[in-house]
Task: inverse folding
């Protein structure tokens, strides 16, 4: 988006950091990609130097520290992040919510921006700690439907990626159907 | 330009020695003898105050210095280098400790800081090592050695608990500060050693032999001052009196040096220098 | 909160952006060594940064001095570290609680964001619910409480205060610190 104009409708706003960690970002146009690629490059560099990947919690700590350093610099990055990862040591999936102030919290589900106001209440109601991927996708559908229904702007659909023990893969997500407010 | 081309003067000789440091030690070994003795309840530092002519005003120069209220220092070697180190020690005890923790550094921490200053002079460009060895004496608050011994004995009663406590407070990063007196020597290389009693300077070897004969465990401070003067007597070249001998002691808090009284919990400095009159008194009883 | 030969420190678990709750698992109490605890309220990012900063400083202290830091020394370290940032402060209001291992006496104190120490012999409060906490603590606290009574007192004081604050709550952590024992308890609290 540039002002009121949509410039691109299918931009992938995620970066893969290593085999099992994915970072999604939103925020100020230039900052987002600059910061995401800086993080991506450093996490990859770590993997190359040490022949081992950082776990999601280690990654979240690194990202937070970098963002906190940036926050008190002359020109801070305005980037909000979600960090999803699968820890191969504990065999558990993890999600971290990080905002541009470098607040970081491990959470079961999260959103940034206006979407929070619509999605979090749905997730509060339907999410359980032990749901399957299919059930998760169902809740995600409820969320995107709600966004289409309530959000005054057309956000041109979503990119859906799944992070699990096998790694990261993009999944098809049917976005066509029109959702009407009741 | 000067800083870009200032190489270290201290470089290894092919045999693996740093001759500059050995030269610095030679300077120390030509210096006036100083000695320190640790007692059960304090420490004494003593040195001879030599002056080449009787016209010197001896009362206005001094070789033993207070660093913090509980830590004092004496040297053998080059006087000017010593004064620089005294300044740096006093400064670092504030910037590196009191201004951070609002308390004075324990003796070992101060010794390490001073030793670092001296070590850096052996590795930096454009400088020479300090031509002094130091004796640093200090008292630390905390668990005193005898107190600790008593507690350990009391706990031997029920074995399991004692063992458990040992595990808990064991390890280098746990536990609390061991208090009481401690005496360290710091050399131009930056190495330091804790001593029960030692001497540095010209007659260090003979003084140490003398101290080995006279030193006993559990010495009282008064006896330590006595032994210090006896040792000094063996090595001193001129006359011995209150003006030619300098003594500093670490002992009980000297509340009369506080400058005020009536404040609860206020403690005077443990380190103080003996006045010429006090020294004369010790000398007459020798 | 100070008791007889014990101290307690407690925090809620909410992390939020104004009225929006982001997480309900964000502890604000951190342990430094065996007995010294630090509570941090304020800007979440600074809570993390400052807790990590003191973890670094206290670990360095422990390696250098080969002993644990005392609560008093730690309080002065917190004060000087915060004042170092006098003109660009960390936006946190810390609370220190611990027992001095040398004399076995409890110690608590609080700070403003630039390190002015507030010593107290009863209790210290901090955060969005501090007004409410002043009320509940003033009403419930009494001198010389034992560990169990102190736990009950601090828990009730905290839970009832955060229930009257929209920006706090979602469970709590309570630490009861005794000379050679620390007990941590999790309180569920109201989840709304």
Result:
């Amino acid at each position: 988006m540039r002002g009121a104009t949509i410039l691109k409708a299918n931009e992938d706003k995620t970066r893969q950091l290593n085999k099992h960690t994915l970072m999604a970002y939103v925020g100020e146009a230039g900052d987002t990609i600059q910061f995401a690629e800086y993080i991506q490059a450093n996490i990859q560099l770590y993997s190359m130097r040490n022949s081992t990947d950082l776990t999601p919690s280690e990654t979240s700590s690194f990202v937070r520290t970098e963002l906190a350093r940036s926050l008190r610099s002359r020109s801070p990055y305005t980037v909000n992040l979600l960090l999803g990862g699968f820890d191969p040591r504990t065999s558990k999936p993890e999600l971290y919510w990080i905002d541009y102030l470098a607040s970081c919290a491990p959470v079961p589900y999260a959103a940034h921006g206006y979407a929070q106001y619509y999605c979090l209440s749905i997730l509060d109601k339907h999410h359980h700690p032990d749901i399957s991927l299919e059930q998760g996708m169902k809740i995600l559908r409820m969320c995107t439907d709600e966004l289409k229904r309530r959000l005054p702007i057309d956000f041109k659909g979503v990119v859906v990626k799944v992070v699990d023990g096998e790694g990261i893969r993009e999944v098809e997500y049917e976005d066509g159907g029109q959702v009407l407010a009741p | 330009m000067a800083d870009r081309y200032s190489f270290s003067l201290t470089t290894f000789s092919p045999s693996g020695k740093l001759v500059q440091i050995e030269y610095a030690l030679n300077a120390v070994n030509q210096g006036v003898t100083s000695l320190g003795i640790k007692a059960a309840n304090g420490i004494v530092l003593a040195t001879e105050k030599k002056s080449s002519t009787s016209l010197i005003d001896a009362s206005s120069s001094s070789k033993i210095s207070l660093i913090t209220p509980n830590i004092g220092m004496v040297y053998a070697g080059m006087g000017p280098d010593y004064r620089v180190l005294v300044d740096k020690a006093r400064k670092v005890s504030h910037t590196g400790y009191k201004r951070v923790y609002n308390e004075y550094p324990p003796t070992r921490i101060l010794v390490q800081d001073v030793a670092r200053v001296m070590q850096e002079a052996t590795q930096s460009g454009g400088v020479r090592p300090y031509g002094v060895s130091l004796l640093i004496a200090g008292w630390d608050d905390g668990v005193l050695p005898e107190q600790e011994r008593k507690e350990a004995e009391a706990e031997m009663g029920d074995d399991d608990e004692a063992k458990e406590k040992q595990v808990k407070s064991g390890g280098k990063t746990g536990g609390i500060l061991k208090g009481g007196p401690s005496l360290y020597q710091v050399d131009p290389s930056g190495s330091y050693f804790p001593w029960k009693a030692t001497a540095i300077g010209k007659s260090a070897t003979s003084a140490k032999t003398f101290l080995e004969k006279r030193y006993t465990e559990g010495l009282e401070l008064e006896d330590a001052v006595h032994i210090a003067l006896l040792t000094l007597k063996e090595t001193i070249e001129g006359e011995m009196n209150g003006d030619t001998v300098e003594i500093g002691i670490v002992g009980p808090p000297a509340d009369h040096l506080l400058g005020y009284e009536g404040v609860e919990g206020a403690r005077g400095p443990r380190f103080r220098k003996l006045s010429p009159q006090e020294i004369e008194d010790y000398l007459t009883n020798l | 909160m100070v008791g007889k030969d014990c101290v307690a420190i407690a925090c809620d678990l909410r992390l939020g952006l104004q009225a929006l709750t982001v997480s309900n698992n964000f502890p604000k109490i951190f342990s430094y060594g065996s007995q010294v605890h630090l509570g941090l309220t304020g800007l979440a990012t600074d809570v993390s940064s400052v807790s990590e900063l003191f973890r670094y400083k206290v670990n360095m202290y422990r390696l250098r001095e080969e002993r644990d830091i005392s609560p008093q020394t730690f309080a002065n370290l917190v004060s000087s570290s915060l004042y170092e940032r006098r003109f660009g402060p960390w936006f946190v209001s810390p609370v220190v609680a611990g027992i001095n291992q040398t004399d076995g006496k409890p110690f608590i104190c609080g700070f403003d964001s630039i390190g002015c120490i507030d010593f107290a012999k009863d209790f210290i409060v901090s955060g969005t619910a501090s007004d409410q906490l002043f009320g509940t603590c003033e009403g419930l606290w009494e001198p010389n409480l034992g560990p169990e009574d102190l736990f009950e007192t601090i828990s009730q004081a905290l839970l009832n205060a955060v229930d009257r604050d929209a920006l706090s709550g979602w469970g709590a952590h309570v630490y009861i610190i005794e000379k050679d024992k620390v007990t941590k308890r999790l309180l569920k609290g109201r989840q709304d």
About this structure: Chain C touches chain A at residues 15, 17, 20, 22-23, 25-26, 43-45, 48-49, 52, 88 (CB under 8 Å). The mean pLDDT of chain C is 95. The radius of gyration of chain C is 16 Å.
